[in-house]
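Intended use. Records like the one below are meant for learning the mapping from a protein sequence to its folded structure. Do not use them to infer anything beyond what is encoded.
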Amino acid sequence: MSTAVVGVGNIGGAIARHLVGGGESVVLAARDESKASALAESLGPLVLAASVEDALKGADAVIFAVWLDPMRELITNYASLLENKVVIDPSNPIGFDANGQAMRTLPEGQSAASVVSSLLPSSAHYVKAFGTLVAGQLASEANREPRRVVLFYATDDAVAEGAVQRLIRSAGFDPLKVGGVADAARIEVPGGDLQGGLFALDEARTKLARRESA
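Structure written out for the chain above:
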C-alpha cells in the first residue's frame, strides 16, 4: 500500500514521519516541491517526493494535509485522479481573521467532512481522520507507553475504514470510529467534543459511549 501525503507542513510532516516509522511507503507532494524533496530526503528510502499529479496517480491512499480551501481546490483540479482512491481528510473548518483570531469558516451545523466528501468522485473512499490532535500533539504522542493515544475517525466506507485503521496503527496510535460522515463534526474544530484530547483506548470508548447514551 502506497500513501500520498499532500502538504508537508506541521501536520503532513508529522504524519509522514510516523508512517515511515511504522514501515509504510510514502510519497510526498507540496505546492513547493523543494520542501517535499527535502523532507523526503531526510526520512529515508521508504519516502519519495513527486508532483501532486504524480503522487496522486501512484497512491492507493491520499492524505490531504492542507487547509480546507486549498483542499477544495486540489480535489476540483485532480478529481479524476481520486477515483477509487482512499481519501483521508484531516481538515477543520477554521481560519483566522485580520486580527489573527481563530474563526469558523463554515456555517454552524456544516462540517468540513460534508464539504469535502461532496466534492469527491463517487468511487472515492472517504474518511475523516488524522485531524483530531493539534500538530504538536500529533508529532509528539505517537507510540506512547504504556498505552497508545487514540486517533478518532469517521467514515461510511468499509474500504476507507480498513485503510485508515492500518495507517493510524502504523503511525503509532489506536484507531477508534466515531460514526459516519454525519458524525464527523464531533472530531472537528471548533466545537467537536472529541477533538484535542489525549485518550487511551478505554478512556476514548467511555467518552464516546457516554455521549451516545446522553
